[in-house]
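Sanity check

After download, print the first record. It should look like this:
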Amino acid sequence: MITIKHDAERVKGSTIGLILINSMYNLEYYIEQALKPHGYRLLITYSDGEPKSERNCMETLISAKVDGMICFFSNYENQDLIDGCLQNNIRILQLFGQQYDCLPTVIINDETMTYELTHYLIECGHRHILFPEHRHTIYKHAKHINGSFFGYKKALNEIGKTITQKEYYCLPLNKDTKPTLRRIIREKNPTAFVATNDEITIATLEVLNEFNIEVGNAISLVAYDDSAWCEYLGITAYQHDFKSIGQYCGRKIIQLIQNQGKNQMFLKKFSSPLIKRTSVRSII
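Expected structure tokens:
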């Protein structure tokens, strides 16, 4: 067990640490705005999803003597640091994943949302739907609780179409992203495509343009995040409310800090509306 030196006599109400894999639609800003009225400041670090980097981020925040942390974890390789923090009354709120069973957690309800999205595409006549998703390096110690896959699978099962995890395409986070997209589009000839983040949406648009495949005509496209340019391009997308998520996380980490010794386990799920635009067409 790692030993954490934590100054128990210092004045509370100072700093909350935030670990993200990358910047997320002003989420950091909304968390900070929720903390400010309570006298807390926000210290932000970025891990890039690497286990060693996550450890370095946690050690940085511990050294800064934070009161609590809000963390987007990609693995569970740093259980010793988690245990050390909790034993030293450094509260942790787990964000957008369920890597550590011992932590209260805030996630987006991917399973329900993806089921509803896939059902919508099926109602529009689509049966060949690609749902590629970025996966950081498949670490030995990582829980890939993929709600999106289960929602996707459930909707397809209802029309008698079986799907396995192997058919749920995981894209590399490097220069191989577009070559992989080219290959699976050629092999599967989809009528609908769901891009699970901005990088995949942009790469997909570029590849479809290379193939002279017109979005909203020859293929339907849905983006998982409603970026500002999605409306301009007429792309159907999920409108995640990062303002509400950030404000909730800010309030909750303060409650976790203030309610020491109480049972504070919970799982909060956020859902988002699907904004339907011209990038999805009916082929019935």
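If your output differs, re-run the checksum step. Summary of this record's structure: The chain has nine helices and 13 strands.
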